[in-house]
Write a structure and sequence with these properties.
The chain is α+β, with helices and mostly antiparallel strands and 96 residues long. It has one domain: Alpha-Beta Plaits (2-Layer Sandwich). The chain has three helices and four strands; from the N terminus they run βαββαβα. The longest helix has 17 residues. It is an enzyme of class 3 (hydrolase). One of its GO terms (biological process) is defense response to virus. One of its GO terms (molecular function) is hydrolase activity.
Length: 96
């Protein structure tokens, strides 16, 4: 499944800035950054649950915001892309 993970971490304190870096690192392990705090992640159900647990362990529920969006099939009619960014085709052949 393709999910979009978004977050808004309060960076007013040094601890908030550290949390922001930790949250980004968790997302980078699973998906690709498409905007500063937005990641596309191609995951199965178990990977999704692991990602959710890892991010919930990092954020402060009193100060931060975390959202997940699950994109339904067929993805090509639900996702439109404009501009210079080109995302990775998770389903396409891997070229090295």
């Amino acid at each position: 499944m393709l999910i979009i993970a978004t977050y808004d971490v309060s960076t007013e304190t040094p601890e908030g800035r550290r949390r922001l870096r930790r949250v980004a690192k968790v997302c980078e392990r699973v998906g690709q950054r498409v905007q500063k705090s937005v990641f596309e992640c191609q995951v199965n159900q178990m990977q999704y649950e692991e990602l959710e647990r890892a991010l919930l362990a990092e954020i402060n529920l009193e100060e931060d915001n975390l959202r997940f969006y699950r994109l339904t099939e067929p993805q090509d009619i639900h996702v439109k892309q404009y501009g210079v960014f080109r995302s990775v085709d998770f389903e396409g052949p891997l070229l090295v």
